[in-house]
Amino acid sequence: MLPRERRNAPGFRARLPGSCWVACAALLLLAPLVHAQSYTTARLADGFDMPVGKPNGDGYYVYRGFSPNGHLGEDWNGKGGGNTDEGDPIYSIAHGVVVYSDDYRAGWGNVVIIRHAYRESNGQIAFIDSLYGHLKVRSVRLGQQVTRGQVIGTMGRGPRNMYSAHLHFEIRKDLRVGMHRSLYPRDFQTYHSPRHFMDQRRQLRFEDRLVRVPVNTFQKTNPNRITAEQIEMPELTSVSETVRPAVPEEVEAVIEEETTAEAAAPEKSKGLFDSFLKRLAAPQ
Length: 284
Ligand SMILES: [Zn+2]
Known about the structure:
single chain, three-stranded antiparallel beta sheet, Glucose Permease (Domain IIA), eight-stranded antiparallel beta sheet, alpha+beta, binds zinc ion
């Protein structure tokens, strides 16, 4: 409410309709921009498998589990120990669409995020993002449709080989997180405990249908925006469980270019202490 003097002031009544009209027109014009939500389509998930040793995670174990306000995902390792699992195929846990594929560098290295639509037990369609971190190579592109069990990259050691080889794997129920975990609660409001989630939904009722999936839901500062253009990618041949994936040469060239040590370490000159601080600030 305006103060009484102002409401009673001469001329106020005359000004009101004009200013209201301008404000209303501006709102009408801006509304589509503010509320616009873009969508793509994806196949409804018919179940969820493990991201390594498909479908059951054979040959792998969770070295470090999910803990709210602690480790926000699971670290999967090969049973062979050390770096014997480096380069092993990483699989999409379900049908979905790639909403992030980039080298995020500090602490993360190559990251792929896939968005999945599935039907909850109450009949509703729900969405999650699965995140695969520290990849050696990424073999999928932003906007690409992927199927359950499709190779999306290989197990790596993070930027500058800062870890021993493992997969950092997360499942988010909040589609806004992207690479900005610090903006959201670090607990079950935002995340699922991955194994628990997958164990509850290994086989879902098969429904051969496409559903609308919201995209571009990440924070605006996130550089990856899905465009409508089709991205040309050679199809990866399916691989057996033990064989490492044959990444097409063109893809390998791009990936190698994006994952050189220099590209991954713009802060190299700052020294060890700084990188140690950075790791403390963003534990993966
Ligand atoms: Zn981790």
